[in-house]
Structures are given as structure tokens and as C-alpha cells.
Amino acid sequence: MTVIDRPSPNFGDRRDGRRPDLLVLHYTGMESGQAALERLCDPAAQVSAHYLIEEDGACFRLVAEENRAWHAGLSLWAGESDLNSASIGIELVNPGHEHGYRPFPDAQIAALLTLAASIRQRHGILPHRVVGHSDIAPTRKEDPGELFPWQRLARHRLGLWPKPQPAGAPGTALEAAFLLAQIGYDISDLPATLTAFQRRYRPACLDGRLDKETAALINGLARLLPKPTALAEG
């Protein structure tokens, strides 16, 4: 695919030589792609991403992958808080919930699949390390939102897609929080985290409640996680 270079001044060095192993997907949440592109390249805005993909599939590279773009903000995943150093960020042009949220066009998703597959290959990003902004910042963010085709991405190993597993599903908030933390979520505000989980895996229900269906999906996703590698005995 053709990638158009549109350098942003908004970047820095990854801290402590951190290599990216997380892919974070966003929507721009602005009225136009041009407005988003200008903001991501405005030094006064102090925000950026590595890539921006327009609704027609045009792709812009704003920050080189070896550098630390400023897209994650205050966030947490799997106990790590400097997610700008840990990740590659992709912005998808979409007005978002404030300006007329709408489905993501096929041309845009096709471009995303191509770009994300190449990023995954370059950096060895595993499926469970592909997340949305709302996953890593559930109290602040809604993007890329309930209309984003996560199941389609999972078919390309860009994320996981669980089957409900009611047997052994969490029956209490404490049990659900334990599994959500294993998955990677910040559980400091459990209703917000449940809503973020639903937004991705059960988009028809965004009530932040732990009912049987949400519990079964949490259990199903937890079972898809790679098993921890045992340390070799010395």
C-alpha cells in the first residue's frame, strides 16, 4: 500500500529503549480528516499518532515507528502505564460520538488490515496486544467505539474474539475484576471497565453490568490468552 509521509513534530524517544509490542487503535473524533491531520501535526496540540487512515483508505505516516508518538494519554494496560513508549498508534478518521459517529468504510478497514499486518510482522505484536483506546483508558475514552469491526480484525490475528464460556464464568464483581485484570484492563473503576469490554465484545449492550452474557464473554476471552511461560530453573 502507498503511505504518504506527513511528518508531525509531536514525538520523542521511547523511554529506556522500550520496543513497541502493543498496537492501539483510535478514531479521530473530529469533523473532518483534514482537521484531524492538522491537529496531529500542530506543535501546540501536543498530540500525534504514528499513522492516520482516511475513510477512503488513504494512509499518512506522521511519526516513525521507532519514535514515541503522543496518542495514548493517561492509560494502563497489563500493569504498564507509559503506553506511548510501548505502542504504535493508528488514528482512523471518523467523526466519533460527538460529531455523528458512523460505521467505518470498507476501504478504510482494508487499508487498516494491510497496515496493521505489516506492523504486526515488523514488531512481533501478538493478537492479545491489539487494543482500542477505550480498552486502555476506560474512564476517559470511547474510541474506536461499538461500530468498529473487531471481529473482522480478529480473523486476521489483529485481536482476539471470544466465544461465550458460561461454565466457570465469573459470578461476582471480584471474580470478574480478577479476569479483566488478567486480560489487561485497569479495574479501578469496574463499571467503566465493563462498559469498555462490552463496547468491544458485546456492542449491543453498553450498560456496564455483569450479567451472565458479559460474564461468559469475559471468561471466554480469558481462556484465549497465551499461557504464561515458566521460567527455566537455574
From TrEMBL:
SUPFAM superfamilies: N-acetylmuramoyl-L-alanine amidase-like, PGBD-like. GO terms for cellular component: outer membrane. It catalyses: Hydrolyzes the link between N-acetylmuramoyl residues and L-amino acid residues in certain cell-wall glycopeptides. It comes from Oceanibaculum pacificum. Residues 8-145 form the N-acetylmuramoyl-L-alanine amidase domain. CDD domains: PGRP. Belongs to the N-acetylmuramoyl-L-alanine amidase 2 family. InterPro entries: Amidase/PGRP_sf (IPR036505), Amidase_domain (IPR002502), NAMLAA_amidase_2 (IPR051206), PGBD-like_sf (IPR036365), PGBDSf (IPR036366). GO terms for molecular function: N-acetylmuramoyl-L-alanine amidase activity. This is N-acetylmuramoyl-L-alanine amidase. GO terms for biological process: cell wall organization; peptidoglycan catabolic process; peptidoglycan turnover. Its EC number is 3.5.1.28. Pfam families: Amidase_2. It comes from the Bacteria. It is an enzyme of class 3 (hydrolase). Keywords: Cell wall biogenesis/degradation, Hydrolase.
